[in-house]
Write a structure and sequence with these properties.
The chain has helices at 2-21, 32-41, 53-56, 104-120, 151-159, 195-206, 219-233, 240-249, 263-283, 289-316, 353-367, 385-390, 410-426; strands at residues 24-27, 61-69, 72-83, 89-93, 123-128, 133-138, 163-164, 179-184, 210-214, 254-261, 323-333, 336-344, 372-377, 396-400, 404-407. It has 428 residues and is of the alpha+beta class. A hairpin with a 2-residue loop joins strand 2 (61-69) and strand 3 (72-83). The model is unreliable at 11-16 (pLDDT under 50).
């Protein structure tokens, strides 16, 4: 009798689960309009989960996955597929999937179904790093009590057999940065800037730095600036073809900002200023020593500028033309803006072009309805050069929950993780 009761209870539970899951439907071939329409309106909207991001990452295969509840789309996930030796692969959902992560039933159903697809595809493991904020805070007010409200998410992901990689601190520890420096929309972003940033923008104005923006027509100059940055920092960023792919796949939201200046005109103005100062100094009365010292200081400053301009002419030629000295490539998607790549000609560092162009980028994004403009990742210690530069714009630090892996083939997963750790240790 007891065995019969247990059997009937087991049958009831299975039937209940089947009936419960009947309301859900999992698909792997969503169309762009529906896919992007869902992502753009979601609170976790992110460029890396947009339909065309798969076309940017064209060296990966991909799936456009989604879950329907009673015929209504309630979850999406762009799955990038990296092919590995021996017909194996890994799945990766950058900043995804997009769903209500507190809906345990939905989360479990999505990953259960994705694992079934992954197993048929000989996928060793599924990696994902959702855009769940652990906390948001001013970088000057580093928050150490930031993990109190994450247990709900961790428990739900754990129920899906997901392994959390922990609250890592280094950019190098994860595929996507766990800490990012983000500027949120406001009525007048310039009023929110620190005093020293406003002063640096005035320095750029004094050098007559101009900001222009456009699309593929600015690619050559932008790529040149990125190459200069790569050479200076000894890093490999991206090439012109990659930037072109980005802009072509986001024709409405892609933009390049360039800071330019006309050194020829600056030099001509300096010459005029020098003659004027020399004339005033020659005519100044002997008893006006204070004014004399002030004019002499101005003359020394003009001579210093003239010397810098000469060095620039030696490189670029003495022509009456605008020179691109700094640039940013950004993509707007939905109500978000990602400032993806930047480059600068270090010889124009004193012109302070990046401060002016970053602010113009923010204004452009906010005018188009963006809630924030993300300047990208920083180290978790918040004491690196990137953080210090980005602090000039009064950002908020977004700290993400981090990476998760769901092993599909546990034994193979353990082997790949061991190999990965060995590879990382050799490159330290």
């Amino acid at each position: 009798m007891e065995k019969m009761i247990k059997y009937n209870w087991m049958i009831f539970k299975i039937s209940w689960r089947i009936e419960k899951n009947m309301q859900y439907e999992f698909r792997t071939n969503l169309k762009q309009e529906e896919f992007d329409g869902f992502v753009e309106k979601h609170e976790y909207c992110n460029l890396l989960q947009s339909y065309n991001w798969a076309k940017v990452k064209n060296n990966w295969d991909h799936l456009y996955t989604g879950v329907y509840k009673n015929n209504e789309l309630v979850a999406t996930g762009l799955v990038l597929i990296k092919r590995l030796p021996l017909s194996f692969c890994m799945y990766y959902l950058p900043r995804g999937p997009i769903m209500d992560y507190k809906d345990k039933e939905l989360v479990q159903y999505y990953f259960d179904q994705l694992k079934k697809v992954a197993k048929k595809d000989h996928c060793i493991f599924i990696k994902f790093d959702p855009a769940i904020h652990v906390n948001d805070y001013d970088s000057k007010s580093y928050n150490t009590n930031r993990y109190e409200d994450t247990e709900t998410y961790l428990d739900i992901f754990k129920s899906c057999k997901a392994i959390h990689h922990g609250y890592t601190m280094s950019i190098a520890d994860t595929v996507q940065p766990r800490f990012q420096s983000n500027v949120y929309a406001c009525e007048n972003v310039e009023e929110t800037l620190p005093k020293h940033t406003k002063r640096l923008i005035k320095d750029a104005d004094r050098r007559n730095v101009q900001i222009i923006h456009g699309n593929v027509e600015l690619l050559d100059e932008f790529s040149r600036l990125v190459e200069l940055t790569e050479s200076r920092k000894g890093v490999a960023l991206r090439d012109k073809e990659y930037f072109k792919t980005l802009l072509e796949n986001y024709p409405e939201g892609g933009v390049i900002f360039l800071a330019t200046c006309n050194v020829y005109k600056l030099n001509e103005d300096a010459k005029t200023k020098k003659l004027q100062l020399e004339k005033e100094i020659a005519e100044i009365p002997e008893n006006a020593k204070k004014k004399l010292h002030r004019l002499e200081d101005q003359l020394r400053s003009v001579d210093k500028d003239t010397k810098e301009y000469k060095e620039i002419f030696d490189e670029f030629g003495q022509e009456d033309k605008e020179i691109a000295i700094a640039g940013i490539l950004s993509i707007q998607f939905g109500n978000t803006c990602e400032m993806l790549y930047a480059g600068m000609d270090e010889r124009f560092k004193k012109f302070m072009p990046q401060y002016k162009e970053y602010v113009e980028n923010f204004k452009w994004a906010f005018d188009r309805g963006c809630l924030w403009s993300n300047m990208g990742g920083v180290e978790g210690s918040l004491d690196d050069g990137l953080t210090k530069f980005k602090d000039n714009f009064n950002p908020t630090i977004n700290e993400m929950i981090g990476e998760f892996d769901i092993p599909v083939y546990p034994f193979m997963y353990r082997l790949t993780q061991k190999a990965y750790e060995i590879l990382k240790s050799k490159h330290k």
